[in-house]
Structure formats: C-alpha cells, structure tokens
Amino acid sequence: MAEPTSTAAATLLAATASLPIITAFGIPLGLRADLLVAGFAGALVAIILLNTVPATDDTLREMVRVTLRRMAVVLASTLTAGYLTPLALLMANVADVALLSGAFAVGGGAQHVLVFVVTRLSGRRVVMPDEEAP
C-alpha cells in the first residue's frame, strides 16, 4: 500500500523537481534561468574586478564603444555559462550542488575560453585586449 502524502508536500516535491527552462517563440532553448543569472554575475565580476574589457580613451565615442563591447561580452559569457556549465560539471564528475558556483566560474572565465576556442578553430592567434600584438 502506498504511503499517504499531502497535496502540499506533493506540490513542493514537484516544484523542486522541475527546472525553469527558458523558451523563445515556443521553442525550449535548454537554458536554465538560475545558471544564466550566475553566469551573468560571473561575467560582471570579470569585467569589473579583472578588467577584461579595459577602457581606452575618455571621448564619448570610445565610452559608447567600450560600453557596447562590455554588453556583448556579458551576453556571450552569460550564454556560454548557461550552455557549458552542465556539460563541464558532467565531464568533471561534480555533483549538481555545484551548478551555480560552476556557472559563476564559467561566466567569469568565458571570455578567455571563447578566445581560446576561436584561436583553435581558426588557426590564427587572437590578441586579447590586455595583451600586446606580436
């Protein structure tokens, strides 16, 4: 005989078991909202504390250009963290408890990882903003 459960306990169990997956135009993207927020926070920390997108000049044109570039880096880092964190933690055989901290770390280091992948695939050396050209 099955054990009796209350409807509140069953609802709570079902709510924790379901993952919020983002959909666009009715198509599930496979992105979890909590991983995107953690990746966004990691990208902001990388930009603010590690200065991965440094400012170059004080003119209005340069400030707008740097701001747009920082926004693009945050978007790319957030999406990278959303898609690659579950895969990276699965490959490292880490428990699901570390998903948010893993997404934070992937979001923080995504710019360097993406530059490495582009370099590997293109066969050319890509110069980071904080490096000097060869």
Order of helices and strands: HEEHHH
Structural class: mainly alpha
Shape: globular
Enumerate how many helices there are, as a single number.
4
Which quaternary structure do these chains form? single chain
Helix content: 55-70%
CA-based gyration radius: 20 Å
Query: Alpha-carbon distance between the termini?
Result: 74 Å
Outline the biggest β-sheet.
Answer: 2 strands, antiparallel
The order of strands across the largest sheet is 1-2
Query: How many beta-strand elements?
Result: 2
Low-confidence residue ranges: none
Estimate the strand proportion.
5-15%
Average predicted local confidence, pLDDT: 77
Q: Key terms for this structure?
A:
134 residues; mainly alpha
Q: Topology, please?
A:
Layout: H1 7-17, E1 21-24, E2 27-32, H2 33-48, H3 60-91, H4 99-122
Antiparallel strand pairs: 1-2
Helix pairs in contact: 2-3, 2-4, 3-4
Short précis:
This protein is mainly alpha-helical and 134 residues long. The chain has a domain at 31-122. Helices cover 62% and strands 7% of the residues.
What would you note in describing this structure?
With 134 residues, the chain is mainly α. The chain has a domain at 31-122. It has four helices and two strands. It has helices at residues 7-17, 33-48, 60-91, 99-122; strands at 21-24, 27-32. Strands 1-2 form a two-stranded antiparallel ribbon. A hairpin with a 2-residue loop joins β1 (21-24) and β2 (27-32). α2 (33-48) crosses α3, α2 (33-48) crosses α4 and α3 crosses α4. The longest helix has 32 residues, at 60-91. The chain is globular. The model has no long low-confidence stretch (mean pLDDT 77).
